[in-house]
Every structure is written in C-alpha cells, then in structure tokens.
Amino acid sequence: MFDGKKVTVVIPAYNEEGSIAKVISDFKSLNLIDEVIVVSNNSTDNTRELAKASGAKVLNEPRQGYGFALQRGLMDASGDIIILTEADDSFYATDIHKLLAYIRDVDLVLGTRTTKELLHEGAKMDWFLLYGNIFLAKLIQFCFWGRCRLTDVGCTFRAITRVALKRFLDNLYIGGPHFSPHMIIEAIKVGTSIVEIPVNYKARVGESKITTNRKKSFMVGLRMLKIIFDAYIWRVRMLS
Question: Chain-centre distance of CA 93, in angstroms?
Fold first, then answer.
C-alpha cells in the first residue's frame, strides 16, 4: 500500500515469456504493490503460466490490440492507485517511487522517455522516435492551450487514481498501439490534473511489436496525429 491506498500494477503482455517473470518480481519486491494484473493479449507462448507462477492475476483479452489489453486491465484493477507499465522490462520498477510521489498532488502522472540522461544503451528511442514523440506531445499541449506540459505521447509507464479514471474510463475505445495519446486526451477533456516526469528507459527484452521498423512507427504516428487532430476539432467546437 501507499499512503494507506491500495496499489495495482497493470501489465499488458503479448508473448513476453522472456521478461514477464522478472518484471512482476521487480514490482512485487518493492512492498508497495497490492495487486499485479497481467493481461495476456492472446499470447501463444508461456507468458500466462509464468505470470501466474510469479503471483500475478492473469486475464486474457481476446480483442487483439495493445489498447484493448490496457482497457481490460484498467477495468479489472481494484487499486485506489493504478500503475500502467510494460512487460518487456524496459522500465525500472523503482521509478514507481517517482510516480507515487506526485500522485499525492495530481490525478495522473505520466512518465517521459525523452530525457537524454535517463536513456540507456539499447533503448528503443532513436532520433525518429524521440522527436516524433516530442512533436506529437507538443501538439496535444497546443490543442489544449497549455493545460499540461507534455514531451512524450508513447510512454505507458504512468499512474492514475481510481477516482480520476472513473471520470473517463467509459470514453476509452481505441484498441491499437495509438492508445497512449488517446488516454491522455480523454483525461484532459474531463479536467484531469496531469504532471509528466522523467523515467529511466532501457533496452527491452525481445522484439518490439509496435515499433519493429521505421515504416510501422510512422504509421502509428499518423494514427496518433489523427487522434490529436480530432481532439483539436472537438476543442474548437466546445469553445465556439
């Protein structure tokens, strides 16, 4: 628990048998976590079995998609504070202390992987992904006229209070890899207070399913751009 509040960690996973046990163990070792939920997104390897053996609650999300897996985890989480993270061991579990330190003051704490000093060798963040994330993040910031400071749209290491999540959980619908900015935008729409903090980002275990090559990354970016454009149109209509 943290400050007397139950903490749930949600981990979406698709064929992450090489890292899932370590990720769960790292978070559970902090003695802050009351519940770990692994959402297996139709994994065909030993992800489910290893997650169960490591003490996680394992769910299956039949709708294929990163966003669908996260939504399932958010809906089933019982914690007062919900942490989203990755199954690929690209984040340090100890950085949860940073998220929890700020969740005392705001509703949603976002990690950012754009701090050079915290980018580790082998991290999946070349110049194309780095500046693409910054560009799209600043577009969101512009669309909502500085409601929050953003530098990264794709970092899913984040913490949110259950109270805040309930205000927009039913508005989440995107199932693909462009879910991350969608969640940020829906949170902003309902007045969620947001802070972004730097987190460590290291080499992942195994192959990325989302940014396997430059073309695939570009297509994900285009989908994110459309989400942001739609949000801008919504914002203009609300003000007109």
Answer: 14
Neighbours of 229 (CB within 10 A): 12
Tokens coding 195: 């802070």
What is the domain count for the chain? Answer: 1
Kindly report whether the global pTM for this prediction surpasses the value 0.90: yes
Distance CA 20, CA 90 (A): 11
What are the tens digits of pLDDT across the range 202-228? 999 977 666 566 777 878 888 888 998
Quote the tokens at residue 159: 């913490």
Up-side HSE of residue 196: CA atoms within 13 Å toward CB?
20
The answer to whether 96 and 83 have CB atoms below 8 angstroms apart is yes
Q: Which CATH number characterizes residue 134's domain?
A: 3.90.550.10
Q: Which domain holds residue 182?
A: 7-239
Write the single-letter amino acid at 124.
K
